[in-house]
């Protein structure tokens, strides 16, 4: 077992990648009980692209998707679709799996002699989904 923060970072990054996530690891100073870390997980842009592309291929698109000049701002079908897609991702991929992520990353921390770890997820933003959708649409 290696207690180097870099190896813990690498282990968490590898774990995140296998779950379609990106991890940011911050080492917190030792408070007399051993080193601690804070881990933030977010959606991997490649995963968001893949899920958006799959939806497009299945025909799960905004009603005006074929209109190259369709509005994308507040109240538009595109933003409504992106908001619903982000909410579903956050609920199913992040929220429901958070306890598992916390358990697994806590085990990784223990294996790397990190005494305490906090794990949080950063929600996928509708703007990110919309950006992927528009990128696919305008190819």
Number of DSSP helical runs = 5
Mean pLDDT: 92
Helix-strand sequence: HEEHHHEH
What quaternary form is this?
single chain
Helix percentage: 40-55%
What is the terminal separation in angstroms? Answer: 47 Å
Label the overall shape: elongated
Strand order of the largest sheet: 1-2-3
Question: What does this protein structure show overall?
Answer:
The structure is a single chain. The model has no long low-confidence stretch (mean pLDDT 92). Helix 2 packs across helix 5 and helix 3 (77-95) crosses helix 5 (126-137). The radius of gyration is 18 Å and the shape is elongated. The chain is an alpha+beta fold. The chain is built from 5 helices and 3 strands; from the N terminus they run H-E-E-H-H-H-E-H. Strand 1 (21-28) and strand 2 (36-43) form a beta hairpin.
Relevant terms:
single chain, 139 residues, alpha+beta, three-stranded mixed sheet
Quick overview:
The chain is of the alpha+beta class and 139 residues long. The chain is built from five helices and three strands; from the N terminus they run αββαααβα.
What does the secondary structure layout of this molecule look like, with pairings?
Layout lengths: L4 H14 L2 E8 L7 E8 L1 H13 L19 H19 L2 H14 L4 E6 L4 H12 L2
Parallel strand pairs: 2-3
Antiparallel strand pairs: 1-2
Helix pairs in contact: 2-5, 3-5
């Amino acid at each position: 077992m290696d207690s180097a923060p870099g190896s813990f970072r690498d282990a968490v990054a590898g774990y995140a990648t296998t779950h379609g996530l990106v991890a940011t690891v911050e080492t917190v100073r030792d408070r007399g009980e051993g080193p601690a870390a804070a881990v933030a997980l977010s959606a991997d842009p490649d995963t968001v692209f893949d899920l958006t592309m799959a939806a497009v291929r299945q025909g799960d698109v905004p009603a005006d998707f074929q209109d190259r000049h369709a509005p994308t701002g507040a109240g538009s079908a595109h933003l409504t679709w992106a908001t619903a897609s982000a909410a579903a991702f956050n609920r199913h991929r992040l929220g429901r799996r958070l306890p598992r992520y916390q358990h697994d990353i806590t085990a990784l921390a223990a294996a790397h002699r990190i005494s305490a770890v906090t794990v949080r997820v950063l929600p996928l933003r509708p703007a990110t989904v919309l950006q992927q959708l528009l990128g696919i649409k305008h190819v």
